[in-house]
Design brief:
Elements: E1 3-4, H1 13-27, H2 32-46, H3 51-63, H4 69-73, H5 78-89, H6 92-97, H7 99-118, E2 124-133, H8 135-143, E3 149-152, E4 156-159, H9 162-167, E5 177-186, E6 194-196, E7 208-211, E8 215-224, E9 231-237, H10 243-255, H11 261-271, H12 275-292, H13 295-311, H14 315-328, H15 334-350, H16 354-369, H17 376-392, H18 396-413, H19 419-434, H20 438-455, H21 461-476, H22 480-497, H23 503-518
Parallel strand pairs: 5-9
Antiparallel strand pairs: 1-3, 2-5, 3-8, 4-7, 6-7, 8-9
Helix pairs in contact: 1-10, 1-11, 2-3, 11-12, 12-13, 13-14, 13-15, 14-15, 15-16, 15-17, 16-17, 17-18, 17-19, 18-19, 19-20, 20-21, 21-22, 22-23
């Protein structure tokens, strides 16, 4: 069960991306029967060696329909396992295949919830959930966060019968903490729909209450049972939210707007740094745009592929896509042209052509200055890049001044947790590193890390870069143990998102091994 908790009124970034992903998936246009058949074919491939599961898949193919979604969800079979695993891990590939299921289940819960709200049932009632939790997760997200918010990002199964929930409290597992959640549900406080499954479940005697995705609760108190070491966690449903994360969510929701749900999904994956996952999707979109001869769409998709190829280190292909986009872009789209020139500039800079890069940045800034309304994100991105060239040229104080101007604009106009603020903090830190002012550099690097930890997925490549920068600064301060910790986090993230022969991963792994020998 995936859930998040930070402190009093904070939720971590996985909640935001999970909410945005759910919104997009529920809006995707597709044919239910086609989607169902695609899902069945996928499951047959995945479970090819499991005869019992294949028989269940055959039955699913024959019997499943929208009205039976709760029945199938409540069965302990491949269906329940796949859906919850993919929601926990945000496995986009499986979630896209199961979009028809997500929509059906969410709508069924909403339908039954509206009946519950309008009925004469009690305003407040208790539900219970028993489970085992990883010890570190329990300590960081519950034990040390009493009074804080707790969000379950997937569907949440509970029971009105505490004895049923007790069955699922894993008291004999030495690798986990046994937890019983005691949840007070107040109908007047509920934003997240929930429904009784008693008359629709495959297991009616569990008295199950199922909450849809993204239920939010307040951790009121926790109590340890000294006899067996289990914990009782008392929660109350709340409509409160993390206001800073809410502001950032609205901002990113606007950034990922697109003509179709599939385009919005591509844009969200870009925000999440899922470069390799989104690349084939955009290549398909580009191929489709070639058929309808829409220059605007083709320019957009070439630009996206330019960004992706630059991020995965294929700079020649990135330049090629940027130039294709530039040739197709309307001369009246000043912002679009500016972003392309900025992309070309950053790619040239990665290739070591800083003078040519500066020319592209200046062209981009000139186009942005012609806009009727200032675009803070675009201005900040370009001026940060210009300052980067100044730093390369050794003009450190001039670069620092430009970074500080960017930061002033961003603090004034962008949400407090906007990732662009982290970029600027990291850039300012790089100047202080160059000046050997390591303590000051470290302060700015930790400011960057704090924002990224609250606004980016936990496996985003930018987090790896920040941990690597912090490690280098700590090493310069001879704080080897701390440096090793941050380098280990760098390598852990990069191992998830890069190929094993990626130069950045190899450099950081080599440095980690070197520092470990120095301990």
């Amino acid at each position: 069960m995936a859930f998040t908790s930070i402190s009093a009124n904070q939720l971590d970034s996985s909640f935001m991306y999970s909410v945005l992903l759910k919104e997009i998936l529920l809006e995707l246009e597709y044919d239910d029967e086609t989607a169902k058949q695609d899902f069945v074919d996928y499951c047959r491939y995945e479970y090819a060696d499991n005869i019992a599961t294949l028989q269940t898949i055959d039955r699913f193919e024959r019997d499943y329909c929208q009205d039976r979604v709760i029945y199938w969800y409540s069965q302990p079979c491949f269906f329940f396992e796949l859906l919850n695993r993919s929601l926990r891990s945000q496995d986009i590939e499986i979630l896209v295949r199961m979009t028809f299921v997500l929509r059906h289940l969410h709508k069924q819960i909403e339908h039954f919830h509206s009946n519950t709200i309008s009925s004469g049932s009690p305003t407040c009632f208790h539900v219970y959930r028993g489970q085992g939790m990883d010890r570190k997760e329990f300590d960081s997200k519950i034990r040390n966060k009493v009074g804080g918010l707790l969000s379950f990002n997937s569907f949440l199964s509970t029971s009105e019968n505490a004895a049923v929930a007790e069955i699922f409290v894993l008291r004999n597992d030495p690798n986990s903490v046994a937890v019983l959640f005691d949840i007070i549900v107040d109908k007047s406080m509920s934003r997240c729909p929930y429904a009784s499954l008693t008359h629709n479940s495959a297991i009616a005697d569990e008295e199950e209450i199922l909450f849809s995705m993204h239920s939010v609760f307040r951790i009121q108190s926790i109590e340890e049972n000294m006899d067996d070491g289990s914990w009782r966690v008392n929660l109350t449903m709340t409509h409160e939210n993390d206001q800073q994360l809410h502001a950032l969510t609205d901002h990113i929701r606007k950034r990922i707007e697109g003509p179709t749900g599939w385009n919005r999904l591509e844009n969200l994956l870009m925000e999440m740094g899922k470069w390799k996952m989104v690349k084939p999707l955009i290549e398909v979109s580009l191929a489709s745009s070639l058929r309808d001869e829409c220059h605007r769409k083709r320019a957009y998709f070439h630009h996206q592929l330019g960004v992706i190829n630059a991020m995965i280190g294929d700079y020649a292909m990135a330049i090629e896509h940027y130039k294709e986009s530039l040739a197709l872009k309307s001369p009246t789209d000043l912002l679009g042209l500016a972003l392309i020139h900025n992309g070309i500039g950053s790619t040239l800079e990665e290739q070591g052509h800083s003078s040519d890069a500066l020319g592209e940045y200046e062209c981009a800034l000139s186009l942005i200055n012609q806009l009727g309304q200032i675009n803070i994100e675009a201005v900040s991105a370009v001026r940060n890049n210009i300052a980067g060239v100044l730093r390369f040229q050794g003009k450190l104080l001039k670069a620092l001044h430009m970074y500080e101007e960017c930061l002033e604009l961003e603090i004034k106009y962008l949400p407090a947790l906007h990732p662009d603020l982290a970029i600027t903090y990291a850039n300012i830190a790089s100047i202080y590193d160059d000046l050997n002012e390591y303590e000051i550099a470290l302060r700015f690097e930790f400011k960057a890390l704090n924002i990224e930890q609250h606004s980016l997925p936990s496996d985003h490549p930018s987090l790896a870069v920040t941990h690597s920068n912090i490690a280098l600064t700590l090493y310069a301060l001879n704080r080897i143990v701390e440096a090793v910790s941050h380098l280990q986090q760098t390598v852990d993230i990069l191992t998830k998102v890069l190929t094993c022969d990626d130069p950045f991963l190899l450099r950081n792994r080599s440095l980690l091994e070197k520092l470990q020998r120095e301990l």
